[in-house]
Amino acid sequence: MTSLKELHDAVLIGLEVGWESAELQFTFGVFDASTGGEKPVKLLARGFSSLRCPRNQPWGPSVFVNEVRQEKSDKGILLAIEMQCGDVIEANVADVVLE
Predict the structure, then answer these.
(1) Which residues pair with 15 in a beta bridge?
(2) Can you tell me the distance from the alpha carbon of 98 to that of 20, in angstroms, rounded to the nearest whole number?
(3) CA distances from 79 to 35, 53, 59, 67 (A)
(4) Which of 40, 51, 62, 79 could form a disulfide with 84 if both were Cys (CB 3.0 to 4.6 A apart)?
């Protein structure tokens, strides 16, 4: 099972917003040492109330993840995905699950 820490250097492939279901689905490509290729990993953030998704690339273009953090907040969980381009995707959510 992949942990949030193991998403360092993963490729962010996409983000899907389920407006009615209040779900965010992030799809990452994670290096699989056993095959030498990439395997897809999904992060499901349920019960989202806000999403901030800048793409200003202050450190230059990149599709790679630097760090994924989750911390408790007054609105549930603050999920932060820092990209290696310097942008930080932030969402207030109720629950985070890696699939």
Answers:
(1) 26
(2) 21
(3) 30, 12, 21, 11
(4) 62
Residues 29-66 have pLDDT tens digits of 999 889 989 999 999 999 999 999 999 999 999 999 99
Q: Which residue type is seen at 75?
A: K
C-alpha radius of gyration, the chain, whole number: 13
Check: pTM over 0.85? Answer yes or no.
yes
Sheet of strand 95-98, all strands in order from the earlier edge strand to the far edge:
11-18, 23-32, 37-46, 95-98
78 token code pair: 């603050």
Q: How many CB atoms lie within 10 A of CB 68?
A: 22
- Cα(61)–Cα(44) distance, rounded to whole angstroms? 25
